[in-house]
Amino acid sequence: MSTVADKLARKSTSKTSAKQVRLRLVYVDFWSAVKLSFLASVALAIVTVVATFLVYMVLSTTGLIDRVDELFVAFSNGDFSIKQFLNLPQVMAFSAIVAILNLIVITVLGAVVAGIYNVMVKVTGGLLVGFTSN
Q1: How much is the CA Rg of the chain, to the nearest whole Å?
Q2: Which residues span the membrane (predicted)?
Q3: Which of 57, 58, 71, 80 has a beta carbon 3.0–4.6 Å from 76's, enabling a disulfide?
Q4: pTM score, two decimals?
């Protein structure tokens, strides 16, 4: 006579077979793709602004901007200074403009890709994806 513990021990030692499922992706929801691409572009915009700030601070702290400015002043006989154009507010404004443009472009690109995929599914039949259970 076996106990419940013996039955459970035998069950846990037996190997279960993994099931495999093959699914076909035949539709990408347009608004879901737009929302996902918008969130990804917001994250990229934040990274762009923060990275620009950090790079500017490193260049400013190491004195590289001052050395480049001295070089430009020497070549232009004092008529042109790069510090007029390369200060923190202007760099951050440029970074913010680039981040906003990237936000718009990436969101629209996500919508276009979803639309193109939905049209191409009619021709190709969709993307075949395989899944397995552990």
Answers
A1: 29
A2: 36-59, 91-117
A3: 80
A4: 0.72
